[in-house]
Amino acid sequence: MPETFVYQWDTPAYKGNTSLSTGLFIDGKWVDGSNNTTIDVINPATGKVLTKIAEGTSKDVDIAVQAAHKAFDTTWGLNTPGSERGRLLYKLADLIEKHAEEFAALEALDNGKAFNWAKMADVGLSLGIWRYYAGWADKVHGETIETASNQLNYTRHEPIGACGLIVPWNFPLLIASWKLAPALATGCTVILKPSEFTPLTALLLAKLTTEAGFPAGVFNVVNGYGSVVGQALSEHPTLEKIGFTGSTLVGRKIMEAAAKSNLKKISLELGGKSPNIIFDDADLDAAVQWANHGIFFNHGQVCAAGSRIFVHAKIYDEFLRKFTEKTKELKVGDPFAPDTFQGPQVSEIQFNRVMNYIESGKAAGAKLHLGGHRIGTEGYFIAPTIFTDTTPDMKIVQEEIFGPVAAIIKFEDDDDIVAKANDTVYGLAAAVFSTNIKRALTTAHKLRAGTVWVNCYNNLAPNVPFGGFKQSGFGRDLGQHALDNYTNVKAVQVNLA
């Protein structure tokens, strides 16, 4: 039997405890992995082992897929009315709300994000998503199509079947909710693969699905490495769908595996190198606040992070001064301290990756304006970092760093800035700051990105779709469009003659 992770918090931000199975959750049961091996889960604030979780294998994936197929064919899918699926999703949402602080504490513990931000953003937004899709569960409708008086033609939007959902470590609960909620609402069954760095909230969520009353096999969790469990899901011959958020490199591998196996349906939300354009007529103080949030929120570990900040030459010096002052105010430290804004990077691997990019920027001739160093001797803390005097060919301008590193870039011409902003292989998000709404929207419409924020940054809502252009992927999470990821459209044609 799997071990149980027991932990008690006694911190200024949160006092409480948790008790979780560290196993795989398959067909409504907690089990060890087939090889009886484990993976260490590290506390990034200390670099020390928190617990060990069961390591899944391709055999475990196969068992979970079989359980998901069985549930789809017998107790879920078209066997369960949308109203009942919605009721269970609402009940699960209520349980998430009941355990909101425990979820936030687990995110702070194995991810390193500030507890207060995790509670407000990660858990708060997740609640909204579960309730939004609970409302959709009995409203996924087809249409009747007129062709001739002696014919009846209509469409059905049917659940696609068993789905593999692979989620990253930067927003473990939130991005899992992005995919799980619409999948379950439409009647699909799921196998969730959380990141091996941040599995704890997925395990708590699995525990609560049992309490909510979901039938066995509808919701499964297989912990493990991407190269094993993620690959096994992607190339599984009977899995109907893969939903993935992560790097473009891995997204390519998933596409290849899907093509070589059974042409399963896939949706990919991938990397970004998002431009944030600050025009000379912007509300400067608001632009500084939002731009700072846009790059340094969640330690810069955001796929849509506004890491390329383009500032008009007329306000460049004043913006840089105010942006620098704001950045210096950010509190970096213990995720459970009430005033912490930025905790550690998620892992030693990510810490080293970010530091290597910082060294690359310096070596290429960019000016290190602020930060660029490790904070403390324990854990994976990096000072918020600002580069100036960059050139378009530098790695820190072209490649996704996924850390608290901003490049401030001067521009003068409105038409030229669109070309500069679009000079990236990515197209996930962008932002424009201007008090001239015509100028702002004209620019926004020319930017090649799936989301463009105007006079704000990192604003998300459950009913607004999110996804990318170009190498940032395809398909949409959130909103009504996410339902398309998990349904097939069937046309039924009846001859009445």
TrEMBL record:
Organism: Ceriporiopsis subvermispora (strain B) (White-rot fungus)
Keyword Oxidoreductase appears in the UniProt entry: yes
PROSITE patterns, alphabetized: ALDEHYDE_DEHYDR_CYS, ALDEHYDE_DEHYDR_GLU
Name this protein carries in UniProt: Aldehyde dehydrogenase domain-containing protein
GO BP terms, alphabetized: acetate biosynthetic process
PANTHER family for the chain: ALDEHYDE DEHYDROGENASE-RELATED
Entry-linked Gene3D superfamilies: Aldehyde Dehydrogenase, Chain A, domain 1 (3.40.605.10), Aldehyde Dehydrogenase, Chain A, domain 2 (3.40.309.10)
One Pfam family matching this protein: Aldedh
Family the UniProt entry places it in: Belongs to the aldehyde dehydrogenase family.
InterPro entries: Ald_DH/histidinol_DH (IPR016161), Ald_DH_C (IPR016163), Ald_DH_CS_CYS (IPR016160), Ald_DH_CS_GLU (IPR029510), Ald_DH_N (IPR016162), Aldehyde_DH_dom (IPR015590)
Top-level taxon in the UniProt lineage: Eukaryota
